[in-house]
Amino acid sequence: MGYILEPIAGKFAISVFFMGTLGAGLSSIFPILMITPILIADYQAGKLDVKSRQFKILTGIVCCIGLTVPILGTNPIKAQILTQTFNVFVLPLVILGMIFLINNSSLMKEHKAGWLLNVGMVLALIFACLISYNGVVALLS
């Protein structure tokens, strides 16, 4: 990528690309660390307590998971490609969970999904399954 920036940034192209990559990583580390504690706090009581023991343990676990790539000496680019590829396989499960939740009458009561939303969700599920299939084919080849 640095070579692509060379006509614009000259000899500083690799430095500019490195700083952009570093900035993107640093700006996303806090949301990544916070997502699990926020989801669990929302599920349990609806209030996030950042001083609680549970918050500190969850954040520590996520930090340790994030350090697996450098500790194992894995190529970070290959690891990032691999993790993004596996996101494709999670999407159909997320859509199935959403379909289950929006059609649960005891949970949604009068806001239960109608036929139009269900058709849209099924189409999204079909699309996600096709993308997952393409991911499997790409991984195998």
From the structure above, extract its key features:
extended, 141 residues, 2 domains, mainly alpha, 82% helix, single chain
Layout: helices, strands, pairs:
Blueprint: H1 2-9, H2 13-44, H3 53-66, H4 68-72, H5 76-102, H6 105-108, H7 115-140
Query: Ends: how far apart?
Result: 25 Å
The major sheet is characterized as: none
Which percent bin holds the helix content? Answer: over 70%
Counting structural domains, the number is 2
Mean pLDDT: 85
Total DSSP helices: 7
Beta content: under 5%
Overall structural class, as computed from helix and strand content, comes to mainly alpha
Order of helices and strands: HHHHHHH
Low-confidence parts: none
Structure write-up:
The model has no long low-confidence stretch (mean pLDDT 85). The protein is extended. The protein has helices at residues 2-9, 13-44, 53-66, 68-72, 76-102, 105-108, 115-140. Helix 2 (13-44) packs antiparallel against helix 3 (53-66). The longest helix is centred in the first third of the chain and has 32 residues, at 13-44. It folds into two domains: 1-66, no CATH class; 74-141. By secondary structure, it is mainly alpha-helical. It has seven helices and no strands.
